[in-house]
Design goal:
Keywords: Hydrolase, Magnesium
Structural class: alpha/beta
Mean pLDDT: 82
Helix content: 10-25%
Radius of gyration: 21 Å
GO molecular function: hydrolase activity
Cofactor: Mg(2+)
CATH architecture of the largest domain: Alpha-Beta Complex
Protein name: NUDIX hydrolase
CATH superfamily of the largest domain: Nucleoside Triphosphate Pyrophosphohydrolase
Organism: Pseudonocardia abyssalis
Strand order of the largest sheet: 3-1-5-4-7-8
Largest sheet: 6 strands, mixed
């Protein structure tokens, strides 16, 4: 059998046996090529989806006050503060997820603006591998408009950039500062574990 990029040979053989296919059909389907028997015997089950990797995606929004201090929130379910946002749900885009999380957590409606950060976060300990996407949420002129979801958030704070390290873990501090810099430079940045790498495309 020809080797292919997306499905290892042993997985292709296993899927082929399970769905009564030829291994080459699995290989072709994984590569996006026409395969006469790409789907299972039920006509619905996509044989490509099962072996492809999945990773967590989270979306957040950069919100600041008129003085440039950054909004951070304190969840009820863990220690410390973080940037407003959360996990993107199945079938939801990161942009939609960021808007939903801000509405649910803070009681305000914001349309995500420019993309600021894409951060690849490697697995570490109990943390799974994931991607974190940060959008510009603009300015909060009146903090009184914030209505916290008390089952999710204990409190919030507007923090000056040079004090973010007192509130956020090191990884999130790097990401937050990168988002502020991206907003100022009008250029989105790609990060790995919060560290810049490669070129930054214009916003």
């Amino acid at each position: 059998m020809h080797r292919h990029r997306l499905v290892p040979d042993d997985q292709a053989r296993e899927l082929a046996a399970r769905w009564r296919l030829e291994p080459v059909d699995v290989a072709l389907a994984a590569l996006g090529q026409p395969a006469p028997r790409r789907f299972g015997t039920d006509g619905q089950t996509d044989l490509v989806a099962a072996p492809l990797p999945r990773r967590r995606i989270a979306a957040a929004m950069l919100l600041t006050d008129p003085a440039g201090a950054m909004l951070v929130v304190e969840p009820t379910y863990k220690q410390g503060f973080e940037i407003p946002g959360g996990v993107v749900e199945d079938g939801e885009s990161p942009r939609t997820g960021a808007a939903r999380e801000v509405t649910e957590e803070l009681g305000i409606t914001r349309t995500p603006g420019a993309l600021l950060v894409i951060d690849h976060v490697p697995a570490a300990g109990r943390r799974t591998e994931g991607l974190v996407v940060v959008f510009d949420g603009g300015q909060v002129d009146d903090p009184a408009t914030l209505v916290l979801a008390r089952d999710e958030l204990r409190s919030y704070a507007f923090v000056a950039p040079d004090r973010l390290g007192e509130y956020l873990p090191a990884l999130q501090t790097r990401r937050a500062l990168a988002a502020l810099h991206a907003r100022a430079e009008r250029a989105a940045v790609y990060l790995e574990d919060g560290h810049p790498t490669g070129e930054t495309p214009p916003v």
